[in-house]
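Case study B.
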Amino acid sequence: MNIIIFGPPGAGKGTQSKFIVNKYNLYQLSTGELLRNEIKNKTELGSQISSIINSGELVSDEIVSDLIEKFISNDIYKHKIIFDGYPRNLTQAKNLHNLLKKYKQKIDIVLKLSVSLETVKKRISERQNQEKRADDNEEIAIKRYKTYEKSSEPVIDYYKQSNLLKVVNGETGISEINSEISGLIDAMKGWL
Ligand code: AMP
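Model:
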């Protein structure tokens, strides 16, 4: 079972991914986390991408594609990935499809967490106190939300057409969202 968790910044993708990983024995592939690690470890790639990430823009499709292929090609993770923060635009969605095909895999369900900009601003300001991410301030959060709005629609349509998309109300509390997601995954597992 491979899952995509999709939604704007602050929607709770990371929190919900960690819950799904524990409950269903999967591995979380967070492109944001992988990219932040490159910056933290002061790698060559990290120095190329830090200003892009800190300004709320997306890094290039080639960079993220390379990162995710390392994961998808590794047998340990086969059929056990939750994609958190990828794909973020239509090119990435098509890339992902081709990469999964190359390694004889597919996506089984796409969970879209829906939240308003107001909620995103509130959550990001709470997270700012806990995680100290350079891109978690109100101005950049709004920018990241707008970037999401601009690029996400074709991705949503793409997964709607293939009947994989499930919309989850991301405005409620963590445990309510947990149970809605569990219900959807359990129902889907019945079909697999
Ligand atoms: P996230 O942790 O998912 O909120 O991602 C933080 C930042 O990392 C984003 O604002 C982008 O700059 C970058 N990023 C993460 N995932 C992607 C992706 N799939 N494509 C391009 N940039 C990404």
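Residues 9, 31-32, 35, 52-53, 56-59, 64, 85-86, 88, 92, 135, 144 surround adenosine monophosphate (CB under 6 Å). The remaining cases will be described in the next quarterly update.
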